[in-house]
Amino acid sequence: MPPGVPAGRPVEAYWDGHRVAGEEWGEGPAIYLVHGWGGQRAHLAVFVKPLVEAGYRVIAFDLPSHNESDPGALAPGRTTATECADAITAMIEAHGPAHAVIAHSLGANATALAAADGAPVGRLVFLAPMGDFPLHLDWFAARHNFGRRIRAGLHRRLEKRIAMPLYETNMTRVGRRASYPPLLLIHDPDDPDSPSWQGAQFMTTQGLGRLAHYRILRHRPAINAGLEFIGHHATQS
Description:
The chain is of the alpha/beta class. It has a single domain, classed as Rossmann fold. Helix content is 36%, strand content 20%. It has helices spanning 48-53, 81-95, 106-116, 133-143, 148-162, 171-177, 212-215, 220-236; strands spanning 9-15, 18-25, 30-34, 57-61, 98-104, 121-127, 183-187, 201-204. Strands 1-2-4-3-5-6-7-8 form an eight-stranded mixed sheet, with helices on both faces. Strand 5 (98-104), helix 3 (106-116) and strand 6 form a beta-alpha-beta unit. Helix 2 packs across helix 3. The longest helix has 17 residues, at 220-236. It starts with 8 loop residues before the first strand and ends with a helix. GO terms for molecular function: catalytic activity. InterPro entries: AB_hydrolase_1 (IPR000073), AB_hydrolase_fold (IPR029058), Carboxylesterase_BioH (IPR050228). It holds the Pfam family Abhydrolase_6. This is Fermentation-respiration switch protein FrsA, has esterase activity, DUF1100 family.
């Protein structure tokens, strides 16, 4: 945890018998922190102290197969965006509607999927989400020198695994299904994939370099923008 963030009260939720582990701090409307692929709940804990001071209850948790949470249908260390969406929905159902959700990378995409399936979210702050998942598959194939046959086979296997077409995970399509809740999208030009979302506020960071996708989590202007976006809503409710 960042300096000044004590251990929180343990919280948990279950989906299909799988445990999601987390912590909570403070009292008030619930704000959920959702980390990215390969991360853990501490990675967004820089938001805990200022949000608690602003009168919110902050809940951070680990996605399936990450840190203290159980795996889902796959082996330990493996999960899918759709399982992560189920875990997010389970946590919100167990601990109350989300006044806001702050999410990073694939955690943002999973949050959007959860919202599209009816999870009650208020405002959304997405840090460096993935815009077009099939594009990442193209990059993966190019990096490993896959031909079209292998790339097409991998595409089919992935769609079978998540039980939906890959293009249905694209942020723009998911946002349409979720009725576009208010969103602050924070992205860096050095991070090549940027999604679009109707009516979203868009902020770009500068100079974070090759590791912009991760450094954005410690970028003070981005953090302050997220806090202001959520805080402004609180004063209007």
